[in-house]
Design a protein that fits this description.
The chain is α+β, with helices and mostly antiparallel strands and 124 residues long. The protein folds into 2 domains: 64 residues, no CATH class; 40 residues, Orthogonal Bundle (Arc Repressor Mutant, subunit A), CATH 1.10.10.740. It has a two-stranded antiparallel sheet with strand order 1-2. A two-stranded antiparallel sheet has the order 3-4. Strand 3 and strand 4 form a beta hairpin. The radius of gyration is 18 Å and the shape is globular. Keywords: Disulfide bond.
Length: 124
Amino acid sequence: KNFTYGVGPKYPEAVIGHYTQVAWYSSFLLGCGIAYCPRQRLTYNYVCQYCSAGNIASRKYTPYLEGKPCASCPNDCDDGLCTNSCRYEDVYSNCKDLKDQVGCKHPVTKDKCKASCKCSDKIY
């Protein structure tokens, strides 16, 4: 209700980071925990960890691809969600360019651009 795809928050004070994190297109592992702290003002503390992390600043207002469910994974779809997640991630934001320029055998690309090099047919 506070988020518009491609635009961001509907008003300046809107908190959207929790939504964009949950909706992030490439997150495929999720773990949450809860701690009970009876002597604290906030009695319960909830924490979730996502892999891949998501909420990348340059893509925060487009946390997924707009369009029909599973349009980018027609052969790997379950209940409207892609199931072909990449088990690697790119450390650098310019990995696509690095792969094109020096290839995947270059030490930097091989180490820091594993998703770009190993997951051309997967979601990452």
